[in-house]
Each structure stands twice: as C-alpha cells, then as structure tokens.
Backbone:
C-alpha cells in the first residue's frame, strides 16, 4: 500500500483494509452500535450479515482503489490487495 497513513497507528477495516479515520466510517453491530473493527461498507448491520469471499472483496476493491488514486492501474492494485487483504482478521484462517 502506497498510502500515507500509518497502519500501526491508524485503525483499518479488518475486511477491506480501508483506514478508519472518521467516526461515520465505522461499521455497525447488529444492534446499531459502532463496530470499530470494520468499515460501514463492509459491515453496515453486524458481522453476522457479512458475506462474500476474499476473491470477491479483491474484485470489488481493485477498481475503487484505482479510482481513488491509491494505485496507478488495476494489475498493481490487484497484486497489492492480494498480498495485503489476507493479513486482515476477517480472512485469516
Ligand atoms: Zn471494509
């Protein structure tokens, strides 16, 4: 990841790796309280409702992160995400 945030001090979504820098970016538990482990896109209504595979997450994130300017093109984004996302808690076996 060639972003400027420091992953050691900035919490990131444990599903997609998005840095969570604003309270409104936090996910939600099923009862509506904030879930600081995940972003609101991955986890809008509780971890029980989270679906999809790692491959689907990578396919979803690649064009988004290129569009955001985090990567210059899709192959470099896919290579970085394929290495990074499996280190996040949701995808660890
Ligand atoms: Zn997320």
Residues:
């Amino acid at each position: 990841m060639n972003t400027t945030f420091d992953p050691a001090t900035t919490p990131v979504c444990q599903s997609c790796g998005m840095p969570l820098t604003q309270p409104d970016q936090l996910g939600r538990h099923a009862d509506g309280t904030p879930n600081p482990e995940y972003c609101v896109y991955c986890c809008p209504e509780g971890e029980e409702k989270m679906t999809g595979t790692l491959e689907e997450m990578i396919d979803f994130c690649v064009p988004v992160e290129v569009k955001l300017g985090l990567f210059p093109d899709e192959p470099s984004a896919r290579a970085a995400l394929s290495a990074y996302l499996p280190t996040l808690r949701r995808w660890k076996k």
Residues 23-91 form one domain. Helices lie at 54-67, 74-84. The chain has one domain: 23-91. The pocket of zinc ion is lined by residues 13, 15-16, 18, 38-39, 41-42 (CB under 6 Å).
